[in-house]
Amino acid sequence: MAAIDAHGLRKAYKTTVALDGVDLSVGEGRILGLIGPNGAGKSTALQAILGLTPYQGTLRVLGRDPWTERDRLMGEVCFIADVAVMPRWLRVTEALDYMAGVHPRFDRAKAEGFLARTAIKPKSRVRELSKGMVAQLHLALVMAVDARLLVLDEPTLGLDLLYRKSFYDSLLNDYFDHSRTIVVSTHEVDEIQHILTDVAFIDRGRIVLSATMEEIEARYLELLVGQDHLAAAKALGPIGERPRFGKSLLIFDGVERDKLAPLGEIRTPGLADLFLATMGAPA
Fold it and tell me: Comparing 175 with 182, which gets the higher pLDDT?
């Protein structure tokens, strides 16, 4: 069964169409990166998945309609938003007390074990923590819930590189177990590529690419080519091109490796380069 199954998902406001016929399927035990620029529809899609906004089309999350069955669904879902905040006066121990009181699947010992590996002190108040520590506290709270689906909306926004890496490493090593499903919405592509099993590019409310990482590796190739072979490479129909260190970086969709090998250096494109090519962004 798909953890998330959307068909023709549409959400329109007075002057804006936020989602325009989105089709998206995410299998159980997968890690999906929902990638797009600001205003592409990422947060609106997550709000629909979480039952926070009505929509047109059909949507099932863990087999339920999130708008009409949200109360039951939320027992199996955790969420960290880009604007997630905690009261500044709240102590870490009080946050644990609260979670233990409101969520029947919260494992306090597991949360305390995760926090013990950080510099966060149990008696500290939120106002005494850095942004990175607050993100670690959020993650500790949600990782300690036995949820089937974890939804993250720009969870590392505003954090420095070390905290971002630590956040995703903890997510992969301490939470993901190939039965839970994780959806990460972000426009910071490179930092999550290594944890993903699936990717969906969204732009202007539409899914422009949806594939597994294995499918991307089999389908797309990136060629670094010098001027002497550039014309021959262009004749093979790249979907994207931009300069790189005096050469040209071209991305191809479905072109055989044997045809590209004589022209330059070949590798699987990174998601950031593939995203730019798919969006048709200028070099």
Answer: 182
